[in-house]
Amino acid sequence: ALVRRVLFVTGAISMAGCPPADRGEAVFIGRSNVGKSSLVNMVTNRKSLAYTSKRPGKTQQFNYFAVNDKPGREKEIKFGDVVEGEKDLDSFYIVDLPGFGFAKVPDQQRKEWADFMRDFLANRRTLKVVFHLVDGRHGPIDEDATIMKQVGESLPKNVAYVVVLTKADKNAKGPAKKKLGKVSIDVLNTLRETMRENKVGNAPIIVTSAETKLGRDDIWRYLRIAAEA
Ligand code: GDP
């Protein structure tokens, strides 16, 4: 798939702050340091600049990135690496949800965040796919179970929910294995169990590595649902 450019659009803190619902959206959610920026950059062929979860002050917002936006709407930033010979995609949004486990925020803010997330999952009508990133070395933590619970309760059944295990190369030993990456059977079992407990037991699991590009095509199978919406 061809990604011509990725532009930061806005950081939303409520439904009213989201851009007009005029194209498909893919959400990436996961706690800080799970490997979200690395994965999105890997998937969209960015080197590092286009996308980072660590924009100062933006860590508690839903960060909207426009992929392949119309030239007229370009802002000052432009990322031009073109992949030859591949089919053009229409514009879609990648939305970075930082997760609400961020440190030291008042309860009230945490509640507002959770309310927005529930509202968004239930009511954002252009939402096509939710990628939930879980650290492939450790498996789900409490916050991941909370996210699964919210997804299980709020996400309409026609929106794809995909669990993405990150950093799989870190579990692999030896140069050959490192090219692929792996996840331990214990992590997988714990993950399946947590998914079942939170009523998302049937969701697909994709094992990925931003280092080795493992899982890139599998991510695109779902990303395409947003891109072609
Ligand atoms: P974010 O906070 O979720 O956006 O996480 P980052 O993408 O910034 O990654 C956090 C740290 O994990 C960085 O030091 C990355 O280099 C590292 N990292 C992310 N993905 C991978 C991966 O697939 N393999 C390895 N070995 N390290 C990774």
From TrEMBL:
Membership in a protein family: Belongs to the TRAFAC class TrmE-Era-EngA-EngB-Septin-like GTPase superfamily. EngB GTPase family.
Give the transmembrane region(s): none
Question: Highest taxon of the source?
Answer: Eukaryota
Please report the stretch or stretches of sequence annotated as the EngB-type G domain. Answer: 22-229
Q: What is the lineage of its organism?
A: Eukaryota, Sar, Stramenopiles, Ochrophyta, Bacillariophyta
| Name of the protein this chain belongs to | EngB-type G domain-containing protein
- Its source organism is Cylindrotheca closterium
